[in-house]
């Protein structure tokens, strides 16, 4: 006969997993939005910066799937499935923790890597580079790396994308956007990093709660079966 405490844990875990499945969709959406936002300027953004949102999308997909595993294990009171569910949550938690540590370690040299990428692109200035510069300058309303002086100091033609397209004047140093693209790109990436960190911390607490609940129910089932 089931104990009252065991029933309570079972239904709490079931409800928890329904919420967990919904949170999985939220994680996928957050990762996709950040990936789309940062990926828009992937010509200048180092590849490792794209990894955290991709990991978040994968983690969200796995969370969504294993949430149903947890629901099934809770309702059927299946000891092995509950242990597998807890183990899967623990693995996801460890992966997210590892990605978070790697991202924090890379944060120190992120700025210098991106600035070098901007300098190299301005120096080469192929058709692909020109299109990338036009895109970032129009979108972020910026000019050059640290300001329009960068284009004046280069041998390149001053780009029209440095100015408001509705302006009825020739685009030049005096009429261009004054803020450089480096600071705007840096701020954009940092804002997205804050979103990812917030989502990551939130899901980590949910995962820990899920592990504890699953282990408690599994222990209660094992105790009940041993009677």
From TrEMBL:
Compartment list: Membrane
Chain segments annotated as transmembrane: 12-34, 54-75, 82-106, 195-221
SUPFAM superfamilies in the cross-refs: Tetraspanin
Alphabetized InterPro entries for the sequence: Tetraspanin/Peripherin, Tetraspanin_animals, Tetraspanin_EC2_sf
GO CC annotation: plasma membrane
Annotated Pfam families: Tetraspanin
Keyword Membrane: yes
Topology in the lipid bilayer: Multi-pass membrane protein
Keyword Transport: no
Cysteine-cysteine disulfides: 142-181, 143-162
Entries under CDD domains matching the protein: tetraspanin_LEL (cd03127)
UniProt superkingdom: Eukaryota
Protein keywords: Disulfide bond, Membrane, Transmembrane, Transmembrane helix
Family in the record: Belongs to the tetraspanin (TM4SF) family.
Protein known as: Tetraspanin
Species in which this protein is naturally found: Pogonomyrmex barbatus
């Amino acid at each position: 006969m089931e104990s009252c405490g065991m029933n309570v844990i079972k239904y709490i875990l079931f409800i928890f997993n329904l919420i967990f499945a919904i949170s999985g969709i939220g994680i996928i959406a957050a990762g996709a939005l950040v990936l789309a936002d940062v990926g828009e300027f992937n010509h200048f953004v180092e590849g490792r910066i794209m990894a955290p949102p991709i990991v978040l999308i994968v983690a969200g997909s796995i969370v969504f799937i294993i949430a149903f595993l947890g629901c099934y294990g809770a309702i059927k009171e299946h000891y092995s499935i509950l242990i597998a569910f807890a183990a899967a949550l623990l693995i996801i938690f460890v992966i997210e923790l590892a990605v978070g540590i790697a991202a924090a370690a890379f944060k120190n040299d992120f700025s210098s890597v991106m600035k070098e990428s901007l300098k190299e692109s301005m120096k080469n200035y192929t058709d692909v580079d020109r299109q990338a510069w036009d895109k970032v300058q129009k979108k972020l309303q910026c000019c050059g790396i640290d300001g329009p002086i960068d284009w004046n100091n280069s041998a390149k033609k001053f780009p029209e994308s440095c100015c408001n397209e509705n302006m009825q004047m020739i685009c030049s140093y005096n009429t261009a956007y004054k803020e450089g693209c480096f600071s705007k790109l840096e701020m954009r990436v940092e804002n997205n990093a804050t979103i990812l960190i917030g989502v990551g911390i939130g899901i980590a607490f949910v995962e820990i709660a899920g592990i504890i609940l699953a282990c408690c129910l599994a222990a209660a089932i094992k105790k009940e079966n041993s009677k």
